[in-house]
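Give me structure tokens for this 53-residue protein.
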Amino acid sequence: MIEKIKDLYQQYYDQIMMWYEGLNEVYKYGVIFLLIVACLLILAFWMLRRITR
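Here you go.
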């Protein structure tokens, strides 16, 4: 079971990295920016949820 999960993770990781490496520099920075914004939004919602409880 663990081996199957590791294989799936490695397969998807390789596909994502191949896609990312194929992007232009501007798009690479855009992807990183969007990931940071998404993480900040998730963190903000999590903190607001904890504050309002």
